[in-house]
């Protein structure tokens, strides 16, 4: 509730968020018990959010027009609109690039030049690059997993290790990609640039990846090197991914970068005879449509978050958390724990980030933690959880390609990248080596970086 301009903490203000999470989680558990495939993805997340919104209108004080105005202002928040627009452009880029053969060429390029005797480590690298380039861990798994299963059978490498390598690479890219929905959500909720999150996270993700590759080289050696195969690729079709990655890291406006990437992919597709103008337009629209769920989820969650904040729900959480927080480092641990546990509950790392974004931003301001570091933590700990849970989309799709030959319990102990990322993520809080980038990179903000 409000008293003047000050928001008074109220546990009641949190109920709509709990309704949203409860319905989303409850439906997933229900379908899981029924044995339905992709159980946690049967109920669309925007519908669950809408139930939370209805409960907010019923529970909160004020007339209907006041509540509706708060909701619409939340939906129309500039960060929310920017985030949704980037989702659409990222979806269009991914769809057009895939349709013109970019994903296939990228996978085949890696398989051509990575020695076959290093197959497990090679699959980690290929999945990591595809996921980083396309912004989707699920897309990387869909592209690489069928090849991985085939190579496991031919090489004698244990299938669980091969699948764990693909999963680790996919989550590496999901966290680091400039155009992934997790990066878009974490940076927009904290008000920082996507390239800044990338620069912060490489200090955590790269060491974890290097150690994982070393482990895969040792424990993922094939008993019999499979016969070399010829893989068809076109280097030109890989260029749009490099174009987007390099220009985004160079600091060019993300709208310009993604729009340029879309038209570059379209031009390459037209040159090689895959696209007409109509084909190109349809793929752009397909990309937009692919982001419909996350677009609506972000828009509706923005409105719900505004209502929950005005009713004192966010302040109530902050009061409870701050009793256990002693300073910047424990604040960061709290942020990591919140997004990790939320992802376990909702089985969607983007949803977990969107839910916790406002809370993380408040903690960032209260304890003077740099927003770029907070965005990095949101990405890291949500991707750790998403890459470990046996009921997440990534794991379910991965196991689907294995045809029932492997169980989640066989893969989970071998998910070395996620485990190392968790350890290094915590270490980075107490030994802030990533702050070297933050201090060198200018930030126009209202608070200073916390001390080392």
TrEMBL record:
PANTHER family: MALATE-2H(+)/NA(+)-LACTATE ANTIPORTER, NA+_H+ ANTIPORTER
GO cellular component terms, semicolon-separated: plasma membrane
Recorded topology in the membrane: Multi-pass membrane protein
The protein, known as: Sodium:proton antiporter
Domain Na+/H+ antiporter NhaC-like C-terminal: 47-220, 232-402
Domain of life: Bacteria
Principal location class: membrane
Compartment annotation: Cell membrane
GO molecular function: antiporter activity
Lineage: Bacteria, Fusobacteriati, Fusobacteriota, Fusobacteriia, Fusobacteriales
InterPro entries tied to this protein: Na/H_Antiport_NhaC-like_C, NhaC_Na-H+_Antiporter
Residues annotated as transmembrane: 14-33, 40-60, 80-97, 118-145, 157-179, 200-220, 240-273, 294-313, 333-355, 376-402, 414-433
Stated family: Belongs to the NhaC Na(+)/H(+) (TC 2.A.35) antiporter family.
Pfam families: Na_H_antiporter
Membrane found in the keyword field: yes
Keyword terms: Antiport, Cell membrane, Membrane, Transmembrane, Transmembrane helix, Transport
């Amino acid at each position: 509730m409000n008293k003047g301009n000050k928001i008074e903490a109220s546990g009641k203000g949190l109920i709509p968020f709990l309704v949203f999470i409860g319905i989303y989680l409850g439906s997933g558990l229900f379908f899981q018990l029924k044995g339905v495939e992709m159980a946690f993805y049967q109920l669309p997340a925007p519908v669950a959010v809408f139930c939370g919104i209805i409960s907010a209108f019923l529970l909160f004080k004020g007339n209907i027009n006041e509540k509706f105005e708060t909701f619409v202002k939340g939906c129309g928040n500039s960060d929310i609109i920017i985030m949704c627009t980037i989702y659409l452009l990222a979806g269009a880029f991914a769809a057009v690039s895939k349709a013109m053969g970019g994903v296939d060429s990228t996978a085949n390029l890696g398989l051509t030049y990575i020695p076959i005797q290093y197959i497990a480590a090679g699959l980690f690298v290929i999945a990591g690059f595809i996921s980083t380039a396309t912004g989707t861990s699920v897309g990387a798994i869909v592209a690489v997993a069928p090849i991985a299963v085939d190579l496991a059978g031919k090489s004698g490498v244990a299938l669980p290790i091969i699948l764990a390598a693909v999963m680790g690479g996919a989550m590496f890219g999901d966290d680091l990609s400039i155009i992934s929905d997790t990066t878009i959500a974490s940076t927009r909720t904290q008000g920082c640039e996507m390239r800044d999150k990338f620069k912060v996270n490489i200090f955590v993700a790269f060491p974890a990846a290097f150690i994982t590759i070393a482990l895969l080289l040792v424990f993922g050696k094939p008993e019999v090197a499979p016969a070399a195969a010829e893989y068809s690729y076109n280097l030109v079709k890989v260029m749009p991914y490099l174009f987007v990655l390099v220009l985004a890291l160079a600091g060019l406006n993300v709208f310009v970068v993604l729009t340029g990437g879309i038209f570059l992919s379209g031009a390459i597709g037209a040159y090689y005879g895959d696209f007409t103008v109509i084909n190109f337009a349809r793929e752009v629209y397909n990309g937009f449509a692919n982001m419909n769920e996350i677009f609506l989820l972000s828009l509706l969650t923005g409105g719900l978050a505004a209502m929950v904040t005005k009713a004192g729900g966010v302040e109530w959480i902050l009061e409870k958390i701050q009793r256990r927080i002693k300073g910047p480092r424990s604040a960061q641990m709290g942020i990591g724990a919140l997004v990790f546990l939320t992802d376990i509950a909702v089985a969607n790392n983007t949803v977990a980030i969107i839910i916790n974004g406002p809370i993380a931003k408040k903690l960032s301001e209260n304890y003077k933690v740099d927003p770029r570091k907070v965005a990095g933590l949101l990405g890291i700990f949500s991707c750790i959880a998403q890459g470990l849970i046996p009921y997440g989309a990534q794991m379910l799709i991965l196991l689907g390609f294995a045809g029932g030959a492997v169980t989640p319990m066989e893969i989970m102990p071998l998910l070395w990248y996620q485990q190392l990322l968790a350890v290094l993520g915590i270490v980075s809080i107490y030994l802030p080596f990533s702050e070297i980038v933050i201090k060198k990179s200018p930030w126009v903000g209202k608070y200073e970086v916390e001390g080392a």
